[in-house]
Each structure stands twice: as structure tokens, then as C-alpha cells.
Amino acid sequence: MKLAFLGAGNMAGAMIQSILAADVLKGDEILLVNARNPEHGKETAARLGITAAEPLALRTADAIVFAMKPQDFSAAAAMYRPYLENQLVLSIMAGISFKKLEKELGALPFIRVMPNMGVSVRRGVTGYAIGARVTQRQAEFAHALLAAGGMAIRLEHEDEISKVIGVAGSSPAYFCLMLEALAGAAVRDGMEPEAAAAFARETFIGTAEILKAEPVSPETLRARISSKKGTTEAAVEAMLGAGFEIAVTAGYIRAVQKSDMMTAAFDAE
């Protein structure tokens, strides 16, 4: 099987690295096409250990990943559409619906994909929705590609993509914000910045490892850690009282709303 990437930003690069690391495909089976800037494409392909190619090579690919910025999609579609026949098209572009993909590229087998940055260390989680023309073989190939970066979850409906953005696609930034706030509180209390950052970061990583290794929910683990009338219980009560849940919910809702707004705007073009 041969896979082509159109665009090689951070997320596409993370996906490529995970696919190679999992030995799903070899470097000569992954093409990078950059018709606008071929030299940059060659440099990026060399850095990632894959193969730079001309647009004509898209006709040899079994699947093509559209990985450019969503605002660049229409122009890219016009450029690459002549080379598309019945290849599987995977889109990692937020806000680009099946409707928009078909309008710009024609009636092809489409899969919408929403990974997160954990893919770069093969600890990501990716949600994906499958279009009507995708065959079982294509679906299995796509799942193998996406599972190389961690967990891959098939969604029932396309409109769940925006929910995945809210809970997973954007949420690495939420966790970073929490770590910033926690370490910042310790620094303001007199701790050295490097130590505060390390305590916050390593505690987060360790907690995530426990949740991954044990069949325990976050609620159960939190209760296990929170001794009655102890420091942890007092801290959690203070956070909840200050609106922690409200703030997290507001962030999730805003991410979903923004995704839906983008989809509506691109569909209207």
C-alpha cells in the first residue's frame, strides 16, 4: 500500500513518524507532495525519512491525506483534483465536512480524521468518521494508519468530530494550562521555577500512567487520593468552589462551537 501526504505541518509530521515507528509502512511507501514549494517538500521528506514526489505520483497512491490548513483547502483541491481517481482521501482538516470535500474533490471515498498531538509519541487518541463510499479494506487500512499513533476510535456520525476536537483535539492545551497554573502557584509561594515545573509535569505523567495501567476511573482515583479531611480534599473543594468545572466545560463548549462555526463557513463557500 502507498500513502501520500499533501501538507506536512506538525500534525502530519507526527502521523508520519508514528506510521514509520509502528512499521505500518516504509519510507518509500509514503509520499510527500508539495506542488507550491517543491524544494521545501524535498527538505521535509528527507527530514522525515519519506519520499518527495510530484503531483502525478498521486495516481499511484492508495490513500491521500489532506493535511493543509483548512483555509488553504479549496486552492489545494483545485490543484490536485486532476490526479484523483478513486483513492481513499483522509482529511485531518478541522471544519472541512464531507459535503465540502465532495464539492471540491468529487465523489470519492472520504474519511474525516481528528488526531491530537500525543500521536507524535504514539500515545495519542484519534477519532475518525467514515464516508459512504469507503470499502472495508480501505477502512481497515485507515484504522491501521491511525492506530499507529495510539488509540483510534471510529465514530458513528460525522458531527461527532467537533466533540472529539473539544475533548481530545484541543485538550492537550487544557492540560498544559493546568500545569502552568499549578506550577505558577508553587512559584508564587516561593518554589524554584524548574522544580515547580518538574513536580507538576511528572505528577501529571504519573497520574496518566496509573489511569492507563489500572481499570480505574478518574473519579475513583481522585477519591482514593483524597483522604477524609486531608489536604487533597481541601484543595479539590477549593478548586470546585472557584469554578473549575465551569471553566473546563466552557472551554470544551467553545471549542465545539468554533469547530461548528468553521464547518458552516466552509460549507457556505
Spell out the blueprint of helices and strands:
Blueprint: E1 3-6, H1 10-21, E2 30-33, H2 38-48, E3 51-53, E4 63-66, H3 73-80, E5 88-91, H4 98-105, E6 110-114, E7 124-130, H5 136-147, E8 150-154, H6 161-169, H7 171-188, H8 193-213, H9 218-225, H10 231-241, H11 244-267
Parallel strand pairs: 1-2, 1-4, 2-3, 4-5, 5-6, 7-8
Antiparallel strand pairs: 6-7
Helix pairs in contact: 6-11, 7-8
Provide a brief overview of the structure:
With 269 residues, the chain is of the alpha/beta class. The chain has eleven helices and eight strands.
Question: Could you walk me through the main structural features you see in this protein, from its secondary elements to its overall organization?
Answer:
With 269 residues, this protein is of the alpha/beta class. It folds into 2 domains: 3-155, NAD(P)-binding Rossmann-like Domain (Rossmann fold, 3-Layer(aba) Sandwich), CATH 3.40.50.720; 171-259, Orthogonal Bundle (ProC C-terminal domain-like fold), CATH 1.10.3730.10. Helix content is 53%, strand content 13%. It has 11 helices and 8 strands. Strands 3-2-1-4-5-6-7-8 form an 8-stranded mixed β-sheet, with helices on both faces. α1 links the parallel β1 (3-6) and β2. α6 crosses α11 and α7 (171-188) packs across α8 (193-213). The longest helix is centred in the C-terminal third of the chain and has 24 residues, at 244-267. The chain is elongated. It starts with a strand and ends with a helix. The mean pLDDT is 96.
